[in-house]
Amino acid sequence: MHDMQLNLTRNRVLTIAAVVALLPVFCLASKEFVMPAAQPAKSYSAHSEDPGHGITVALDPYDTEAKANIFSIHYNELDLLPIFMIVTNDGDQPVQLAGMNAQFVTANHTKLDAAGTDEIRRRVTRPVSRRSYPLPFPSKTVKGGVSPKQLEEIQRAQFGARAVEPHTTQAGFLFFDVSGISNPLAGARFYLTGVRDSKGGEIMYFEIPLDH
Question: Domains in the chain, please, with CATH?
Fold first, then answer.
């Protein structure tokens, strides 16, 4: 009887230990992406403004583990650099973003366009990382190798605003493929073109250094 009680106690301890060990995996699988609250673009150190139109564009790179913890997908381990872009319109007329072009230029002048949904999905499905340690425990996937929850996060996270109304701010993430670049922010610059005023006229380009 005593041995049976010891076995039951031992089994309970082992079960609890197993559950505790798996908690990080469960938390990762159940994590919900929440877009960061955007502050006025001028409040970010990395920003560029066009006073004539009242437009300010700011960037906040999510290049550290602490900041990137808002995501369930470990983009940095997939050599995708998430950059939070904030556009504030302090003017009295809306501005159009539908034709904008965001470009990341490295210190050696390599030009990188923001990755689209399909490109991000391919990277999540077939990661090519410069890092030697394994990727996190994968969640259940469907055809294409990306789970519905991961796809929802990818789509929700990306900057999708097509316009910025007067006295408002729009924000979202741009993802850049920085494969093979050990320190992508060092000496890098960001350019945003194709922003237009309410009449369709193109506003000056925005240039933002990223090595603050």
Answer: 31-209 (2.60.40.1150)
